[in-house]
Structures are given as structure tokens and as C-alpha cells.
Amino acid sequence: MADPFAWDESLLRRYATRGSRYTSYPTTLAFREDFGEVDYQAALARSNASGRPLSVYVHIPFCRNICFYCASNKVPARATRLAEPYLSRLDREMVLIRQRLDTSREVQQLHWGGGTPTFLSLDQMSDLIDRLDARFGLSDSRDRDYAIEIDPREADVLTLRHLQALGFNRLSLGVQELDHRVLKAVNRVQPRALTEALIDEADRLGFRSLNLDLIVGLPLQTRDSFAATLEQVIAMAPARLSVYHYAHLPKRFAPQRRIRREELPSPEEKLAILRTAVTMLTEAGYVHIGMDQFARPDDSLAVAQRQGSLQRNFQGYTSHADSDLVGLGVSALSRVDDVYTQNHTRLAAYETALDASCLPVSAGLRLTFDDHVRRHAIERLLCDMALDLDALGERFGIDAPRYLADALSRLEVLEQDGLVGWRGNRLEATPMGRLLIGHLAMAFDAYRPSEPDPTDTNPL
After folding, report:
1. What is the distance between the terminal CA atoms of the chain, rounded to a whole angstrom?
2. What percent helix, strand, coil does the chain show, rounded to 5?
3. What range(s) does the Radical SAM core domain occupy (predicted)?
4. CA–CA separation, 38 vs 187, rounded Å?
């Protein structure tokens, strides 16, 4: 395999410290607990004047089987009837939000995440869609972006046909790995045939885009085993691939205590796995969009990146992020007007708030002018792999080099290491810098903690 980059392993090891994926700036670490329901209600009301389209995220926390690597907010459950009280509370949350929100605005994006959204029965999925349509008015536009995360063990061809009938046009399959030994070690055994059957049916039904999730750093994984997985995945020809980094934090996440540390790949082997992933996917024609995301050149993400319109939100890269994002469900995040909010992360607290007819906000933040400037700088870096300081200065009416002098000073070391260069007042990531784009973004982060949140990481 020919390397697409002049791979510098010593440099990658030096920058192996964890950093944020910046699905928001400021990140959730900066959210304040004294930000509450009244602040969110005011933001919902202010957002109506913008006329921006809406994006709705729904968190379904239930999982029938807990994977040992998982760091998501989930609720173990076996029977789908256990989701009924939760669905009722989701509807109550919608009602409370609708009281402040102009719902004539188009719901351009819809995303169901988890947990395992396909834990729900087909009838429950239909019921939830009906409630969303009744409260917000869902779109039938061809340009809508309606996606759902799928566990191949919890879906079949009938599920996909039902999802298409409900209006979903994008799918994300949690594959993680195809090596049986690795899957067994993380309690996620799923035959390859399940994944292939869903991919074939999704293609036959004409879903607009299919994303496969993979994880690097799982127990018993090697560069050779992951190469074998990638060879099979590439043959499946998904439009998008997300290659996530596993962070082993057993003290924080109980399921991870079932993973044997001695079976995890060494740091050197993990770098070799990453090198294999980048090389094989690039040779197969995938574009490394940035961070953890790869896409085919004709996919909407790659097209948006070439056009300079790619954006980023709590779900990652998107071509439809110029909207107000309303998050529903336990732990859900929202980005409305100039605020971020997060719902209670504990199911009991979420339920208690809604039973008292209160929005279940646990923390949030209203952005300052400085936050807006730095958020834009970080977003353009992550999406364009470059930052035009002249355009930034014109957008915000500032002398950008002077205003961001602290960030530019921090970039000097990265420039010396060959990760970034200048073309006039345009900052551009080098090929190696693209692999470490999160570290370039960190230079602009005014909230940078000495110890970043290790669950919000990816070396790509």
C-alpha cells in the first residue's frame, strides 16, 4: 500500500494527547449548571425571528445488549413495552418546546440516536414519528436529511422498509468490527451476513446515503485484522465511514471493566491500525473529510466540503447545519439561537422534570461575542482544513490577526512541526495537519482545560 501522506509516527505519538472533537464550541465542559429552563425558553422565543429551519435530534437510550466498549448514555432493557413511558415523556417535552417555538419552520434535519433507536417496535416508531409530525410538522422535501442509527442485530429488511415509509432517507449502521474474535471480546457478536443484508436492502430501497461506524483500538485488534475488516467494508461500498477511537475508561464506564486491558492494542499497534485505515480508505477513493469521517467524492459531505459549505454540529459533519437544533430525550443536546443546552443525563431526573411540566434542562451556555468568533474559526478549520483570517475579520468586524493573537501564538509550535502553513492571511493544514486537525482547533479554544474530556476524542 502506498501512503497518501508522508507519515510521521514520532510526530503522531507526540500529539497523542486527547483533545475535543468539537461537535460544539464551547464544548459541554464549559456548560453552566445555573443555566436552566427559563434561559432555554427565552432562546426558543428569540430563535423564531431568525426564520432558520429546524433540526430535531431524538435520543432513544434503550439497549437490549450492552457492548463492553460503550460510553454512551443508555438504559438496559429487554422488552419494548418498557419504552412506552419514555415515549410519553418525549411527547410532553415536545409540547413544552412547541409553546415557545414557531413550528411553521421546516424540519430540515431529523436524527434518531442512542442507545439503540431500532430497539423500538415498528408500531412505536410509527407513533413517535406521528407525535413529531403533530408537534413540529415534518418535511417531505427531497432535500430533507432524516437519519437513524441502526444496530444490525436489532433490524431486518422489514425494519428498513418501515423506516423508509416513515420518511427516513439516511442510515447509519453500527458495525464497529467484522472480526469475530474482536466482536466477542466486546460482547457484540453480529454475523457479517446481517450487515450485508441490510446494506443490500438499503441500496435496493434507494436510501440516499449509508454510513458505517467502525472503532479503532478494541481488544485483540491488530493492523492485519483491521485491514481484513476494511477490505470487506470497502467491498460493501458505503457512501460514508466513521472511524472512531476507543477510549478505555473503566473507572467511568462500568461495562468497560469487562475488557481486559492486556488485550488492547499497544499505542504503536494502534497507530499502525490508523495508518492502515487512512491508507486503505484513501486508495479506495474515499475522501478524508476530517476527524473521524470519510466519504465518497460524490457524497453530500464531500461535495459540501469542496464548495466551502460544510458545517459541524452535535451529530458531526453535516451539509445542513445552518439551523436551530432541538434535542429531545435524556442527555440530548440543543443549539438554539445563541445558546447550547443539555438535558438531564440521568433518566430519573429527566422524568421528574417533565412530570412537573418543566423542560428537563440540566446545564447550558449563552455564547459571548468571543465564543462566536472562535466557534466560527474552529468550525472552518475542521470543515475546510483552512481558515481565512481576512474573511473572518470581515464577518465579525475585527482585526482577526490581532484579535486571535493568543491562538496564532499557540500555532507557532504546530507550524514548526509541519502541521500548518500560511498563504498570506490564510491558515492551511498540511497533510499531516489534516490528521491532527483537532489539535489545530484547540489553539483557538479559550476554555481549553489542562485535561480535556477523554470521552470526546479522536486522533483522526
Report:
1. 19
2. 45, 20, 35
3. 48-283
4. 43
Q: How far apart are CA 367 and CA 144, in angstroms?
A: 28
**Within 13 Å, how many C-alpha atoms sit on residue 420's CB side?**
26
Q: Do 283 and 294 belong to one domain?
A: yes
- How far is the C-alpha of 420 from the C-alpha of 442, rounded, in Å? 13
Cell, residue 210? 449509508
Contacts 24+ apart (CB under 8 A), 422-429: 424/390, 425/388, 425/389, 425/390, 425/400, 425/401, 426/386, 426/387, 426/388, 426/389, 426/390, 427/381, 427/386, 427/387, 427/388, 427/389, 428/385, 428/386, 429/381, 429/385, 429/386
pLDDT profile of the chain (460 residues), mean per 10: 63 73 92 96 95 95 92 87 96 97 94 95 98 96 94 94 97 95 94 92 93 96 97 96 92 92 93 91 95 94 94 88 92 96 96 97 98 97 97 98 96 94 95 90 85 44
Q: Which H or E element spans position 111?
A: strand 107-114
Query: Do 146 and 168 contact (CB within 8 A), yes or no?
Result: yes
Tell me how far apart the alpha carbons of residues 177 and 154 are, in angstroms, rounded to a whole number: 16
- Cell numbers given for 156: 431486518
Q: Which residues neighbour 108 within 8 Å (Cβ) at sequence distance 6 or greater?
A: 53, 54, 55, 139, 141, 143, 144, 145, 320, 323
C-alpha span between 436 and 443 (Å, rounded): 12
Q: What is the pTM of this model?
A: 0.93
Residues with Cβ within 8 Å of 347's Cβ and at least 6 positions away in sequence, in order, are: 61, 75, 86, 330
* Dist. CA 305–CA 115, nearest whole Å: 29
Q: At how many degrees (to 10) do helices 192-205 and 223-236 cross?
A: 30
Q: Quick one: angle between helices 267-283 and 223-236, nearest 10? A: 30
Q: What is the pLDDT of residue 13?
A: 77
Same domain, 444 and 299: no
Query: In the numeric block, which cell numbers belong to residue 11?
Result: 510526530
Same domain for 136 and 214, yes or no, is yes
Domain assignment of residue 349, yes or no: no
Q: How many domains does the chain have?
A: 2
d(CA 224, CA 137): 49
Q: What is the pLDDT of residue 1?
A: 42
C-alpha cell at 309: 459549505
Which residue's C-alpha cell is 459549505?
309
Tell me the C-alpha distance between 200 and 205, whole Å.
Answer: 9
Assigned C-alpha cell, 177: 468490527
Q: What pLDDT was estimated at residue 448?
A: 80
State the angle between helix axes of 122-136 and 84-98 in degrees (0 to 180), rounded to the nearest 10.
10
